[in-house]
Amino acid sequence: MAYISSNHTGPNAGSSPDGSCPFCEAPKRTDEEALIVHRGEHAYVLLNLFPYNSGHLLVCPYRHVPLYDEATPEETTEIAELTQTAMRVLREDSRCDGFNIGMNQGVIAGAGVAAHLHQHVVPRWAADANFFPIIGSTKALPVLLGDTWRSLHDAWPA
Question: Which CATH homologous superfamily contains domain 2-155?
Fold first, then answer.
């Protein structure tokens, strides 16, 4: 409901109310406040505020760049490495059965924050679909973001 009521449509979709980029602002906050699970040299990992599933992570470069082909070799290497680590952490911590991993490039492709590159790492379980999405257009997420952050942050390798 938070996502729906925030009216995430139009040319500024995904930006903060003041027009700033949420992925540029997140690293300026504490890890717990911004739900940052891990900080790397060129990229970082945080929980999605509007998750498709419990444990839905985003891997973002610090640099404000919109498209994958505009990322530096160092950024793409670290995004790939952090994605692999995220998969291992989620598999160990959440016992997930699979993943959806991907990037929506540009508003037309479905990017919620099109101006800042980010990769989705969505854990999936064999029985993670139920009647809620079909009957009530609602997805049940039984774990609070703060609890998920603590669990994944603590499980991330040093």
Answer: HIT-like (3.30.428.10)
For the question of residue 118 being annotated catalytic, the response is yes
Query: How far is Cα 134 from Cα 35, in angstroms, rounded to an integer?
Result: 30
| Amino acid (one-letter) located at 4 | I
Domain chopping of the chain, boundaries: 2-155
Is 120 labelled a binding residue?
yes
Q: Is 48 annotated as a binding residue?
A: yes
pLDDT digits (tens, 9 = 90+) for 106-154: 999 988 899 999 999 999 998 776 555 554 555 566 678 888 899 999 9
103 DSSP 8-state letter = -
110 is in an annotated binding site: yes
